[in-house]
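Dear Dr. H.,

I hope your travels went smoothly. While you were away I took the liberty of generating a structure for the chain from your last submission, since the lab meeting agenda had it listed for discussion. I wanted you to have the full record in hand beforehand rather than looking at slides cold. The sequence, exactly as received, is reproduced here:
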Amino acid sequence: MSKQATKSERESVKEVKLTMKKLLLIALSVILISALFIGSCAEPEKPAPTPAPAPAPAPEPKTGPEGQEYGGTMKFVRGQFPKVLGYPPEFAPGDSIAMLPVLERLAEWDEKGIMIPVLAESWETDPVNKTVTWHLREGVQFHDGTDWNAEACRWNFQMGIDTARLTDGQFVESLEVIDEYTIVMHVTFVSWMSIENFGLMVSISPTAFENAGATDEERIEWARMNPVGTGPFTVAVFQRDDFLRYEKNDNYWQEGMPYLDAMEVRFIPDTMVAAATMEAGEADVWTDASAIQMMLDLEEKGLDINWGPGMFYLLAFNSSDPESIFYDQKVRAAIEYAINRPALAEMLGYGQYEPLHQMASSIWPGYVEGYDPRPYNPDKARELLAEAGYPDGFKTTMMLTEMGMDTGSAIQAYLGEVGIEVDLDVADMGRYFGSVFGIGWDDMVLTASGINPSATDLFIHFGPSPMTFRTGNIWKSDEYLKLCEEALDSKYADAYEAIDKIRAAIRQGGEDAMIVPLYRTSSGQVMQTYVHSDYQLIHGIMWFSYDDWMEEH
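The corresponding predicted structure, in token form, is as follows:
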């Protein structure tokens, strides 16, 4: 049984609880007052943070005198890749083109084919004393820090002469250094074309070459992969058949140039892959495009294209041999009448190829306006064949490569219509080039030549002493050769002064039916719309890379 609390006991308990409440309240008050006291002794309360200022606007891109923007790495795809970088005597065409940003010339063409100074400031010829004097640009250095001067120029000329790679070098008797920036060539023959040939020589650093090894073999081996020039760019990385990186030469002699920081090139020989790379925006430039339909498709999709002059396609004969059927001018003329060149150019070039009716295209300085000696006329072809003694036609062969099969098959069909049965002799590159530029060919050959803006290609390919078609297969009349020689008279300063003689030679070659001009192709550089470049517009060997730039993108 529980014990009941008395009244006095209940009141005592109540009193104890009351006392404990008071003590608890006092303790809480002390804690609160202490907290306030401690807080009042701490550092003053910091003000609310000031909002951070808005970020400063990005600086305006540095621009050139006409709004060109500096900086950036331009990314290229190419279907050809160099093998030799820094030893010009071993350059193939693809090597020399790839090194245009690195190795510079004495002079080069402008858009009209006139020679403009680069490492030379001026030059003059003296036909009486048979000299060419070069006045060189001062204040230029090679990438290794050594000076460009008359001795460096003499060394490079001599290297070209010793290796037989200086065009017209056979006419140079001696080289004389007059002072630090003047050199005189003593020659046996000089013409305006010789000046172009000498001026287009590229130069490397003699010091870098000489210091590269104890023997010429060691030096050449080193130079092949180490180009040391005066150009706006240097080669920073080279992986054969894969990747090439150029970097800006901060000591370039043209003030304010180049605009780009770097250029990178990927080797993509497959045209479909190259086109897809451009369409996907994974490259800025496709620099040696030749697939016309793909280029036109990319142009339709909004990309830009620099259309260049391309190549001069022709049919050449074994016409200098009196035993050859093509020794007869009427046979050659009949073949020219038999080929529908406008239709051929349209079929192959989708409107970008120019049909040819003379040994010059309409973009060439020596073009003869209105001259078309043999437009398409199969009946006239049959008539001439009958006059030549072949009323039923004849059988013959035409050498070509696999790349020329479309053209060759079309020509085969056209000649078949007038009774000429053509067997297509498809040669590998070794046999083809060995025949065309070496030992010669039997009947006909489908071939091509370059197109220069200065008219020099008339002489380089078809002149009295050609550099390319020098086998002797192509018959040339005395009248034609005389006009070519007169056009190269030293009294003319350039092709434009000699233009009447050049055009007379073109007309005479046409009357002789010396070759059958077929069509002019178009080369091209495909570019994203933010790229600014003039490459390919003048010629494939003219690349002013220091002037290339990109808009912000």
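Two observations you may find useful: Residues 311-521 form a domain with the Dipeptide-binding Protein; domain 3 fold (CATH 3.10.105.10). Residues 1-50 have pLDDT under 50 and may be disordered.

With kind regards,
E. W.
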